[in-house]
Amino acid sequence: MKDKERPLILITNDDGIKAGGLVALVEVAKKIGDVVVVVPNESYSAMSHAITVKHPLYVKEIKHKKGVALYKVNGTPVDCIKLAINKLLDKAPDIVVSGVNHGSNSSVSIHYSGTMGAAREGAINGIPSVGFSLLSHSYDADFSHTKPFIKKILKHVLANGLPEGTYLNVNVPNIRKLKGVKVCRQARGKWVEELIEREDPRKRKYYWLTGYFKNFEPEAVDTDEYALENGFVSVVPCTIDTTDYKHYDNLKNIQGELQV
Amino acid sequence: MKDKERPLILITNDDGIKAGGLVALVEVAKKIGDVVVVVPNESYSAMSHAITVKHPLYVKEIKHKKGVALYKVNGTPVDCIKLAINKLLDKAPDIVVSGVNHGSNSSVSIHYSGTMGAAREGAINGIPSVGFSLLSHSYDADFSHTKPFIKKILKHVLANGLPEGTYLNVNVPNIRKLKGVKVCRQARGKWVEELIEREDPRKRKYYWLTGYFKNFEPEAVDTDEYALENGFVSVVPCTIDTTDYKHYDNLKNIQGELQV
Hints:
The structure is a homodimer. Chain A is α/β, with parallel strands linked by helices. The first copy, chain A, contains 7 helices and 13 strands. The relative contact order of chain A is 0.14. The model of chain A has no long low-confidence stretch (mean pLDDT 95). The interface between A and B is large, with 85 and 86 residues.
């Protein structure tokens, strides 16, 4: 990014165009740079890193004025990033920002999250990328306390960049008095499913996925879960490289046993 | 798994119930253990780690005989694993196996893949999990050469387990004479998009996502891409922990700069 040039900020989310989290994010971003918003035309929660291959994508320009442009797409958050980078923008964005999600994306929730899928797609494309989430699913959640933190983190990433393939998973507790920002690792945990079983009018059973998150290491103080429970904004540096380097050498050593 | 007890093998895929890759996988698995197949009722390619939250899930039992049971679900591959583990199975499976996918899931393709989403979900649930893919998108692809490798890898994982949170991404070249199995890391690369632009009868522009994979490090000999190009089956140990430990300390060191 050249000095004195306003950075180009590409924004998406997975909660739809009217979500309070998106509004809050755009309000912060437009004070820092030129903003292009490309979002799914409906809520695409829990779409992870999915892309659309079965139907074509339509783009609708909603607003185009100096400083803020707004497009809707009949696709996923990752589709939005792909379309923006390859078709809608004249130049590569300086940063991809996703959110602010209505609901936590800490620990393994990152894998289900469309918000974080979009941030990951930015990183795959070599662009510094950040996903923000608030620990409240409420449609009417108040995002005002997230704004100073979003501003700080966006400015830091714009000034310093991120290593290739790294993106940030930022979660914010839903309390007014935050204690600060903690850089963390992803907590070990999982969603314990409680499938709700019902019967439809034709007597067929059906299920709703639901459940609660279980932290496998509540005692650990370096995790995102710990930071959030203790009133801190959690920042996890994430990588697009899924390789398990901890066990890579072990597996490499027994490669002979895998031969046919 | 107790000695002499047949292992319980949970299988899913993202290409539908009649896909040749699924048939090949079941043929191998039923010689090793008791097989329960829970698959999406239609092709769910590129659904990544998505789960269904907007509509309820219906399960249809297609077949239930000793040794092989078969269910269809109106959901994603990850939904199938969640339903199987939490509702359909009496006990936890000894292994989750996904595939064989019609098409490569090497390098960053793992992020878009429903096949690998299901394997990752198995690992999140503490079950040793493997996803298999063949480097051919053809519906009529011949999977016979993949079978000895699938058998070897399944038996190895059943006998030795996998570390907590680790799952395997196995890709097989579409050539008859394979040179062996290589344990690899995920190659750096990305999909270069070539959005196909068309016009519908109402003169509205629409786009199809397409493109080609670009390997950023074709010279590296320890990647999955290199192994596959050179006639080897690639085995990448993957982790559910997205934390970028390479850059964790750097970011932790500048944590002070992120405070508001």
